[in-house]
Design goal:
mainly alpha; single chain; about 110 residues
């Protein structure tokens, strides 16, 4: 997995606070088929909310949260989430975040 988080952090910066909180809530209210990915998305949204309030710390790569055996489930879950927002005009920023997450996984291929 490519650890360059630039596209992800840029996409997070484009989300408004309501979208960030909505994504955090969504990670808790969906089937836990890719728990590492969901935990990382929640952590990334929290990271962005904290960054906006001047609390700067390093955003960890998904590899820090997602076990290698969850890579395939995570990429498929991210792609399924992406498809969910495919036709929602209001979700351009969320779609951009999911695109960045999928690209992050696809950058160097999955770890397994």
């Amino acid at each position: 997995m490519d650890d360059d988080l630039g596209a992800v952090t840029a996409a997070l910066a484009r989300l408004d606070d309501v979208e960030l909180h909505g994504l955090v809530d969504a990670t808790k209210n969906v089937p836990q088929t890719a728990p590492g990915l969901l935990a990382w998305i929640e952590a990334a949204c929290d990271w962005e909310l904290h960054r906006r309030h001047g609390h700067n710390y390093v955003l960890q790569s998904p590899a820090a949260t997602i076990r290698p055996e969850e890579d395939a489930a995570s990429i498929y879950a991210a792609m399924a989430m992406r498809e969910t927002f495919d036709h929602d005009i209001l979700a351009d920023s969320v779609r951009a975040l999911l695109d960045a997450i999928v690209a992050l996984f696809a950058g160097d291929g999955l770890r397994h």
